[in-house]
Design brief:
Length: 398
Amino acid sequence: MASGSARYLRYILFAIFGLTVVYFISSSSTPTLSGSTSAWTGIPVKAGTAPESAATGTTPNPPPALPPATADGARMNATFVTLARNSDIWEIARSIRQVEDRFNRKFHYDWVFVNDQPFDETFKKVTTSLVSGKTHYGQIPKEHWSFPDFIDEGRAEKVREDMAQRQIIYGDSISYRHMCRFESGFFFRQPLMMNYEWYWRVEPSVELFCDIDYDPFKYMADHKKKYSFVLSLYEYVETIPTLWDSTKKFMKEHPEHIAEDNSMGFLSDNGGETYNNCHMWSNFEIGNLNWLRSKPYIDYFNSLDRDGGFFYERWGDAPVHSIAAGLLLQKDEIHFFDDIAYYHVPFTHCPTGEQRRIDLKCHCNPKDNFDWKGYSCTSRYFEINNLKKPEGYEAEMD
Ligand SMILES: Nc1nc2c(ncn2[C@@H]2O[C@H](COP(=O)(O)OP(=O)(O)OP(=O)(O)O)[C@@H](O)[C@H]2O)c(=O)[nH]1
Ligand SMILES: [Mg+2]
């Protein structure tokens, strides 16, 4: 009896010990939201990874189910950014869904939305539900979305009337001009953007056609890239008749800002005498915000802004960003993301090469690929950078 009781006691002690071990193991793997460590990865979060406050609100999302799948688990100090109106909600919802499905559901980067008007509840509710990172909503200050005092509004109005008559696309629009000026000179200095180092611009109604299983922000940082593109083309010259004259004036005034090994060969066919109108399409961009906030870029933007072409012509942010990247950056700081397959009406970038498209699970039609067509400037990029064009490009030329 006595030895039987001792055996029972031993069983009970073993059971208590076992339960205690199980308890400690399970409680130490339960995520905790406090401290400076990522709750889901155990990886220390870099200071300034995300802004703490928003100009008009921040909506935290529930914790993601999966840890970020970057190569070494490190997260970049990066965000998506979208300029949109409340009426763009269903078009931007489609873009977000694509970006999430192809990339961000594995990475959970934040998304900053900016607007010249306050965002409404529907916009915030729907976008927050779709983005797997944190969402932030900001209103653009008046001085970044209005005529500067040095602009003659009467002259600007006459230009709009004339462009309307000549049926130049968006030629009669004031808001389109504010948009182009904002994207050229101000989006990267909004309070919500100031804590980030990298951005990925997304517009309404764009499509992504292939899986992106690595972190393009990290790729940019690791390879010392500052600006990137997927589509390039010739600008509609009627919208920028004097942009190159203004640029040449800037180059003369600020030779110290011009990079030695620049991409002038992409922008000009005669060593800089005239502009060939080639630009990288800025509705897609992954880039470095510190470069846009640097003195060379700001000096260039201020010089263009003073010359008035955002209002006296209809300068687009795409040629402005491209000329800046082409002249102020070393040519190897500009990256072509061949593996990011993309559509913005009316052009498609679909990677060349069947095996590549299969590997990336692409669903674009290779016939739609714009890269090697006559109106694309991507060949020039390959030529000035001595890059080998992918096998099979000749078959996609027309
Ligand atoms: N808040 C706000 N956003 C705008 C306004 N106009 C354009 N946008 C945004 O600015 C970006 C560029 O505008 P788009 O109308 O797409 O210009 P686009 O790409 O040259 O022309 P589309 O071929 O029509 O797409 C988009 O993200 C728009 O949602 C505006 O007046 N207010
Ligand atoms: Mg657009």
